[in-house]
Specification:
about 325 residues; alpha/beta; five-stranded mixed sheet; four-stranded mixed sheet; about 30% helix
Amino acid sequence: MYSKIVGTGSYLPEKILTNFDLEKLVDTHDEWIRSRTGIERRHVVTTQTTCDLAEHAVRRAMESAGVKPADIDFIAVGTTTPDQIFPNVGCLLQQRLGIYGPPAVQVEAACASFIYALGIADKFVRAGESKCALVVGAECLTRLIDWTDRSTCVLFGDGAGAVILKPSEEPGILSTHLHASGEYADLLYYPTGPSKPVNHNVVCQSAIQMKGSEVFKVAVNKLGSIVDETLAANNLDKSAIDWLVPHQANMRIIQAIAKKLDLPMERVIVTIEDQGNTSAASVPLALDTGIRDGRIKPGSLLLLEAFGGGFTWGSALIRI
């Protein structure tokens, strides 16, 4: 028994912030941002919350899959930016959608949160515990940004993506692979939380902190390793991969993984130019984009991968 993706959906906030808009806010410029990240614009929330974004994406995924709220019997939401500490976003989604009773969990693994949530939901379906699972990646990352820090404020955007999983006798999700290593915690982090006392020696306690060059090196290394792990686990050569659906963190990282797979960029789903880094939302957003515009066709073999603060990283090999 496999789990198989039977529907996808995504949503982006209406407001768009371009690199030229950022030039007015911080000491940066369009060419500097594009050359280092590949980003030209990103969508940002105004009054919406993570649950608001997720609800839009979920309703589109449900429509795509032809399922009703009553059909959903497991919910896993990957996010780093929940509406509140509790109830978790999965529970808030239940209330919005009129779903009563099934388990709803929230997974926080930074940019790898969706892959983690997908891995959990896949195992629920394979074990016979779920007949219709909802998996979401949704973020309001711009709420965690210091808009005076040009090294981070140019990177992030907001959005949500969702998939519906059902049991299948035919191969769907072939395997998922999840990893973490806390030894790198000081390279990419958010400095405070509800249980942490205020540190008066820290200047900024409410914004993402990142050592960009160090993060880049580790990301390329770990993602390269998980590509090998995923292929080996399925006894496949890299030539079997039809599409790479990567986390949209940095164009140079995306290009490095495509090169490792010997994939031309024409077979990589890239959304970073228009969306920036939407963290947990970036992989399902890219997946929905590729399916809806017709590039990803039924039967295609996809490699999904993501890397985030923690560090956390993961992959999923999927037959659509």
